[in-house]
Design a protein that fits this description.
The complex is a heterodimer. Chain A is mainly α. Chain A has helices at residues 23-32, 35-45, 49-56, 66-88, and one strand at 102-105. Chain A has one domain. In chain A, helix 2 crosses helix 4 (66-88) and helix 3 (49-56) runs antiparallel to helix 4 (66-88). Chain A is globular. Chain B is α+β, with helices and mostly antiparallel strands. Chain B folds into 2 domains: 13-41 and 187-419, Naphthalene 1,2-dioxygenase Alpha Subunit, Chain A, domain 1 (Alpha-Beta Complex); 48-170, 3-layer Sandwich (Rieske Iron-sulfur Protein). The chains are: A mainly alpha, B alpha+beta. The A-B interface holds A 23, 46, 49-50, 52-53, 56-57, 60-61, 64, 68, 72, 75-76, 78-80, 82-83, 86-88, 93-97, 99-107, 109 and B 194-200, 202, 225-226, 270-272, 275-276, 342, 344-345, 351-358, 361-362, 364-365, 368-369, 371-373, 375-377, 379. The structure holds FE2/S2 (inorganic) cluster (FES) and fe (ii) ion.
């Protein structure tokens, strides 16, 4: 199977299923994950965030190669997962019950 | 202890004596009867913001809006001369909804040369004129000029598209927005075209969610966990005080401090904020927006610790301008007395690097986390207001915009009833 992420980020390949194009998918994966899974993803990806930004910024944002684009989507997932890990200690916003808020327009990249 | 000066009267609320200081009735939020009055008194009689001109980039670009509260659907279109027009979304032949895709109650958008009715194929130009009638000679004494689309008043103010469903309205949108609108004219909204839009169906009266966003008295408590522990303790010790408040006509605004963008001390913020240089108040590295000085209505106190100005434009349009050069809009579209659709839309200067894009992503995700918290009390509040067990509530000085909102909404309903010649429904409003 070919790699999802750029070769320099082979260490994150096992989290490739966090490379998701839409906020809805990222948020759904967050809610479907245990705290242990979120923590594991965060612990692996957070230290690589600076390098990921440097990698992507070799290219103009509107001309990212596909593997860099997928790396960026994984970084968006890290942003999303940072809330349970850094703040809530649970996947869902506390006391939000069944409430939801859907991203209906988001940038193409 | 006060950290920011208040007006000579001793409070913001008393500075605007028409507001009073008595407890406020929430009987405007818990009954179907009252909501039916609001639909005609408010939503069919005020300027409603339905979008931005960027949604209509070229001739023939259009979008529809379902204005359930105003009992209609409108289609808004860019005409050949570059103007913007709005029409009731109804075919003049036999009343079919003119513009929709797949699901008649869902909003849609696109670009077209003309509007074609799905039923018998009548066609209307972008100016609303009836251009084609199938088997026209079968009709009696028929002149196509008599059957153009029913036009709705539509105006563009600073790139925001407004409609007014009152055919007798004589006030322009900019006059309606008044001093508070005039004070922000010239802000470069048109540069902020990178859009993140969120939508939620909320189980409360529309005014209750405006309440939640029109005061920050709740922030140090409800949002306590979003700050690092030490910072959170400090914030709840301070409480919240606005830098300044203003009410003018039907509208209000609060100007707030915001030392978080960038923070004075990096230890005040979470690790993700430190590395992405962003957070609730937006990306710390401000894009150039070509402005030497803010319009006079923004940061009116000219405070060096200014963070955000929040405008409540009656009835259901809020505009938040953040110090780091971006803005948010909120809209609340009632669907019943106890439900509405909330839309929160973030507008940034388009990013040119992945780093800038990630900073914006963090601001957008942070917005959603806060908004879910802001929304999580609403259903609970609605259900208890409906018990009628308690009907009047004390509002503090930092809740002045709520006092003004409910007073304005009640005033509009009373004026409407007087016009109808009915005996005003008694609302035990100690306003
Ligand atoms: S209802 Fe539209 S053409 Fe007949
Ligand atoms: Fe809030």
């Amino acid at each position: 199977m070919s790699a999802v992420l750029p070769a320099e980020f082979a260490d994150l390949e096992r989290f490739a299923d966090w490379s998701l194009r839409t906020e809805a998918e990222r948020y759904a994966k967050r809610l479907a994950s245990s705290m242990d899974e979120l923590q594991e993803f965060y612990d692996a990806a957070f230290p690589r965030l600076e390098a990921a930004m440097e990698h992507c910024d070799q290219y103009p944002l509107d001309a990212l190669p596909d593997d860099a684009k997928r790396l960026l989507w994984l970084c968006y997932s890290l942003v999303n997962a940072s809330f349970p890990v850094e703040v809530w200690r649970q996947a869902r916003v506390p006391d939000s019950g069944a409430a939801s808020m859907d991203a209906v327009i988001e940038p193409a990249i | 202890m006060a950290h920011f000066p208040k007006p000579a009267e001793g409070s913001w609320t008393e500075h605007f004596p028409q507001l009073g200081t008595a407890p406020v009735s929430y009987s405007d939020s818990n009954s179907a009867d009252h909501y039916e009055l609001e639909r005609d008194a408010i939503f069919r009689r005020t300027w409603l913001n339905v979008g931005r001109v960027e949604q209509l980039p070229r001739t023939g670009s259009y979008f529809t809006r379902e204005l359930d509260a105003a009992r209609t659907s409108v289609v808004v279109v860019r005409t050949a001369d570059g103007g913007v027009k709005a029409f009731h979304n109804i075919c003049r032949h036999r009343g079919n909804k003119l513009v929709w895709n797949d699901f008649p109650r869902e909003e849609t958008a696109g670009t077209c040369r003309q509007f074609t009715c799905k039923y018998h194929g009548w066609r209307y130009g972008l100016e609303g004129d009836l251009n084609f009638v199938q088997q026209e000679s079968e009709f009696f004494n028929f002149d196509r000029a008599d059957y153009g689309l029913a036009e709705v008043q539509c105006e563009v103010w600073e790139g925001f598209v407004f409609v007014n469903l009152d055919p007798d309205n004589t006030e322009s949108a900019s006059d309606y927005l008044g001093d508070l609108g005039a004070g922000i004219v010239g802000y470069p909204f048109e540069r902020m075209t990178q859009v993140h839009k969120f939508r939620a169906e909320v189980g409360s009266n529309w005014k209750l969610f405006i309440d939640a966003f029109a005061e920050f008295y709740h922030a140090p408590v409800l949002h306590a966990k979003q700050a690092v522990a030490e910072e959170s303790r400090k914030l709840s010790g301070y409480g919240f005080e606005g830098l300044s408040y203003d009410v003018s006509g039907d509208h209000g605004m609060v100007s707030s401090w915001g030392g978080m963008s960038p923070p004075k001390d990096l230890n005040m913020v979470k690790p993700i904020e430190r590395i992405l240089r962003s957070g609730l108040f937006g990306p710390w590295d401000r894009p150039d927006i070509g402005l030497d000085e803010l319009p006079p209505g923004l940061n009116p106190a000219r405070s060096p610790s200014w963070g955000i100005d929040t405008f409540v434009f009656f009835p259901n349009f809020m505009l938040l301008v953040w110090a780091p050069n971006w803005y948010i809009t909120y809209h609340y579209w009632p669907t019943s007395y106890r439900s509405h659709i909330f839309e929160g839309t973030l507008y940034f200067v388009p990013p040119t690097t992945a780093r800038e894009r990630l900073a914006q992503e963090l601001a957008a995700v942070t917005f959603k986390e806060y908004a879910l918290q802001d929304g999580n009390t609403l259903e609970a509040t609605q259900s208890m207001l409906e018990t009628g067990a308690v009907t009047e509530f004390p509002l503090c000085d930092q809740e002045i915009l709520l006092r003004h909102l409910h007073q304005t909404a009640r005033g509009r309903v009373s004026a409407h009833q007087e016009r109808l010649g009915a005996t005003p429904v008694r609302i035990s409003a100690a306003s």
